Amino acid sequence: xxxxxxxxxxxxxxxxxxxxxxxxxxxxxxxxxxxxxxxxxxxxxxxxxxxxxxxxxxxxxxxxxxxxxxxxxxxxxxxxxxxxxxxxxxxxxxxxxxxxxxxxxxxxxxxxxxxxxxxxxxxxxxxxxxxxxxxxxxxxxxxxxxxxxxxxxxxxxxxxxxxxxxxxxxxxxxxxxxxxxxxxxxxxxxxxxxxxxxxxxxxxxxxxxxxxxxxxxxxxxxxxxxxxxxxxxxxxxxxxxxxxxxxxxxxxxxxxxxxxxxxxxxxxxxxxxxxxxxxxxxxxxxxxxxxxxxxxxxx
Length: 299
Prior knowledge:
2 domains; globular; 7 strands; 5-stranded mixed sheet; alpha/beta; single chain
């Protein structure tokens, strides 16, 4: 029960909804968030349309049974799980906080290059839901299996980064509510930075406006409370995100630079080397030598 409540609270944050929309636009892949009872827990606006249609079909329990099996698998392994459902490919991505899977991301089924043009038999059994699913099926993205594996790795990295930071923030707020006005402003600002570090236009003035303070005063209290300047904090958050993305060999340094808010990949590499003490490609090479790259389990 506590895990379900925790994940419900976190999924209400705007950054997750924005990320879902952005991921769909960039990849064509939609996803839902499920709890341990395997039910979508985001409002219909933020749920995968195809998955929602499958779950709403009273006569089709096979999809739900498959979801339950995959959910049990990722709860145990805490690793992404790519599997086949009626000739379609799906990914189950565990959401891991403090070493425990508190929920999962379920991607909308994805068609592979040799998928049939029409929905496979047996997916839906009543005429109304079948007609609806046929239309949604035709709109599903079509990708190669290797692309699906790479995107699953990327989704796992990004979604767990979001959940880790949101979860930590909520726990902090719940454990100590005795904050001064300045502390509250800085906490709100830090949360905003973590949610929007990928914004290339993120600036001290923009964040100060979010907490309704002048940028001069905000700059002073931010450093006073966190013992670090605004730009140092923003750079730290961006470099932490970049370091995690470098685990994905399918992403180039240029792509990672853009993903964490830099428009100049060369400048990004210089900053990364200054902060992490090693160039991005060397950092990735060291990770691979240690064998820490993410693994995708397939059947």
